[in-house]
Amino acid sequence: MAQQAFSGAGGSGTISINPDELTHIANELMAIANEFESVIAPAIKNINHQNYVTAGKAKKAMKKVSDANDRVLELQDHYARASSLVFETLNAMIQADQEVGEKIIASLNIGGDKG
Hints:
- This protein is an alpha+beta fold.
- The protein has one domain (19-108).
- The protein has helices at residues 19-48, 58-96, 98-108, and strands at 2-8, 11-17.
- A two-stranded antiparallel sheet has the order 1-2.
- A hairpin with a 2-residue loop joins strand 1 (2-8) and strand 2 (11-17).
- Helix 1 (19-48) packs antiparallel against helix 2, helix 1 (19-48) crosses helix 3 and helix 2 packs across helix 3 (98-108).
- It is elongated and about 65 Å long.
- The two termini are 23 Å apart.
């Protein structure tokens, strides 16, 4: 467990961070972002190119389907950004503490194969 002491106007204390949990979170966020890229985005593109309704009053309502799909795709950007921020935090931890860095690298399986 990595710890960072802090003090200042807001108070003082210690932040404890478990590198294994942080790497697990980073990997899960990346998996979600990858699922969006490889499965969800192509499916939404396919749905958006379908002509379910070609005439009538319902055609206008179908525009909302495309808008909703666009909003779903925005989630992909959010998951990718969250993953990026977690990896930036891990990188900062690696640079700040060699022992923690070694645990993070081992947990991410960087630079070698497990077992």
